[in-house]
Backbone:
């Protein structure tokens, strides 16, 4: 984990807008694997559908002592991918994250809403 926020382009979504951030009450040790499962969900289904994964990473930083931010990014090449396959790989990240929360006893309705 670094102390400085990543460059703005690393925090941008596929439309080059800053990705939304939500406060989810988890410890750093609980949140980081969840993001890893999320990004792996995107990457695995993307590869299953023939997309090329450029990079997949967990991004974490501590903007001030005791406060941390964790997010992730999976970049891929999806040229010629059918729309339903692309939509499925987008959803795969959320599904993998929810499965992680359920498997480790961390799922709550409040976290699901966030």
Residues:
């Amino acid at each position: 984990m670094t102390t400085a926020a990543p460059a703005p382009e690393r925090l941008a979504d596929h439309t080059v807008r800053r990705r939304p951030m939500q406060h989810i009450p988890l410890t750093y040790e609980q949140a980081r694997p969840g993001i890893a499962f999320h990004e792996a969900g995107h990457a695995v289904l993307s590869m299953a559908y023939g997309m090329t994964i450029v990079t997949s990473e967990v991004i974490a930083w501590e903007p001030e002592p005791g406060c941390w931010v964790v997010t992730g990014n999976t970049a891929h090449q999806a040229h010629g991918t059918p729309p339903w396959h692309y939509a499925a790989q987008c959803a795969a990240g959320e599904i993998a994250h929810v499965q992680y929360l359920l498997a480790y006893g961390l799922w709550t309705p409040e976290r699901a809403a966030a």
Remarks:
- The CA atoms of residues 82 and 95 lie 20 Å apart.
- The chain has a mean pLDDT of 88.
- The beta strands are 52-64, 67-77.
- The chain is about 40% helix and 20% strand.
